[in-house]
Design goal:
This protein is α/β, with parallel strands linked by helices. It contains 13 helices and 17 strands.
């Protein structure tokens, strides 16, 4: 866990305690990890039970994913593919000279020793590679969003069904012990009837806004430019588009596909929800006027219908790529009896006193009428002792060093070994990607969209 994560967890506990010492009572509990947070690959696993993986797309996310995957016992990397030769060199530096490397991902898929692949390419390659990997007999860890275009979603879903391969989508919060605790608390009615969910993600750095470094040796000779472009419009060599691809609609999915999709995944897991029925958004390029064509500030509003697992509620999402107060991320589930917040490495519940009486506004009544009103009122609503009017807080924090991304890979490899379902399969991934991608459509087309979360398609006749 990096220093920012440690600090956020420490601040979470401090702020929770400070807020409640003055106003009521506070209790803090440490959550139990779902898996051992191991740091060694191969420990306590038979050589015959090894899972050999390959990485397709060896950028920052792909290399981070692979390093995390290799912490799971019995996992080893045998191949890597990327369009930039420098990343293939780096793969051998990190994981050994025997790692097979290629610019062509199909050569990796053709290797019989590869059991599973991590696909962490630009978004416009996700669906095609995911389907081809499953058809090649490989299990697939496919980075979010699962697809760049909604119409591709069922191709991945059907490939999973047809091939029987395990497909796990890479929104790791759904494997988090923090989100699991939030789910448990909400299902138990911890905050009463929920009516609103708010989530935000602020970033206050160039790297947070996708201003990634461009290698000084980036040339047409060591980059397979045409392979990177794929189905995207053809254009002359321009390395900024490869190394900062998230800034462009041709290859990425912007704020909604990169970040909102995490928020949708978390909400849908916690509430056992299939998604919203109405999507609307706004935003703009407010600060990072660097040639990008996707917003650096985005707001989304969503209507969720009542289901067997949750009441009807409204969701508000926000991302800001230049937040002067610093970077932070938080969820707030607002209910009739309290507020549940996910953030800073834990879950916090703040409950006020449940309103037992309606209150009164009798100042304009004649004095005798006021007295008569109060007399009857206090018979029905006796005054409560002061100690019953304080609020109380519960904090549930992850243990030091906890990483939900490791749990997500543990979940993936356990499913492969036992042929069991994963927590975030292709269907779940599409139900998170769908409203995220519609958020972009709403922004660029200045429209409100109606969405069918069961059939995962736009409803005709939308406004």
């Amino acid at each position: 866990m990096d220093n920012s994560t440690k600090n956020s967890r420490r601040n979470f506990i401090k702020l929770a305690g400070a807020a409640t010492l003055a106003a009521g009572t506070a209790k803090t509990f440490t959550l139990e990890p779902a898996y051992a947070q191991t740091t060694q690959s191969g420990a306590s696993v038979s050589p015959n039970d090894k899972i050999q993986i390959a990485l397709i797309g060896a950028g920052g996310q792909g290399m981070s994913d692979t390093q995390t995957a290799l912490r799971v016992p019995g996992v080893e990397i045998v191949a890597a593919a990327d369009v930039y030769d420098g990343r293939l060199v780096r793969a051998k530096e990190l994981w050994g000279k025997d790692v097979f490397t290629s610019r062509d991902y199909r050569e990796v898929l053709a290797r019989p020793e590869v059991d599973a692949v991590i696909i962490a390419t630009p978004d416009h390659w996700h669906a095609k590679m995911g389907v081809e990997a499953a058809e090649a007999g490989k299990h697939v860890y496919l980075e979010k969003p699962m697809v760049q275009q909604i119409k591709e979603g069922m191709d991945v879903v059907n490939a999973q069904k047809k091939t029987g391969r395990i497909i796990q989508i890479g929104s790791q919060r759904v494997s988090s012990i923090i989100y699991r605790k939030a789910k448990e608390l909400l299902e138990a009615g911890a905050i009463g009837q929920m009516n609103t969910v708010e989530a935000f993600w602020n970033r206050n750095s160039a790297l947070g806004a996708w201003q990634y470094s461009i290698p000084p040796d980036a040339t047409p000779e060591n980059i397979d430019w045409d392979r990177f472009l794929g189905r995207a419009p053809k254009r002359p060599f321009e390395p900024i588009r490869l190394f900062r691809w998230r800034n462009y609609r041709d290859y990425g999915t912007g704020v909604a596909g990169d970040l909102f999709v995490h928020l949708f995944s978390g909400i849908h897991f916690v509430l056992s929800s299939n998604g919203p029925v109405r999507v609307m958004s706004t935003g703009g390029i407010r600060f990072w006027k660097d040639g990008r064509d996707v917003p650096d500030v985005m707001f989304g509003l969503y209507d969720y219908p009542q289901t067997a697992t949750h009441p009807a509620f409204n969701l508000a999402l926000r991302v800001n790529f230049m937040d002067g107060a610093g970077g932070e991320e938080s969820f707030r589930f607002v209910g009739s009896d309290g507020v549940l917040t996910i953030g800073g490495g834990g879950v916090q519940i703040i409950r006020g006193t449940k309103q037992r009486e309606p209150g009164y506004t009798i100042e304009t009544f004649p004095k005798t009428v006021q007295e008569d009103f109060l007399k009857k009122y206090r018979v029905e609503y006796p005054e409560r002792a002061p100690e019953l009017n304080t609020r109380n807080t519960e904090n549930y924090v992850a243990p030091t060093g906890y990483r939900d991304s490791l749990d997500h890979f543990q979940n993936f490899f356990t499913a492969i070994r036992n042929n069991k379902p994963v927590v975030e399969d292709a269907m779940f991934g599409l139900r998170a990607a769908g409203p995220a991608l519609l958020t972009n459509e709403s922004y660029f087309n200045s429209r409100v969209y109606n969405w069918n979360p069961e059939e995962m398609k736009v409803v005709k006749g939308d406004s």
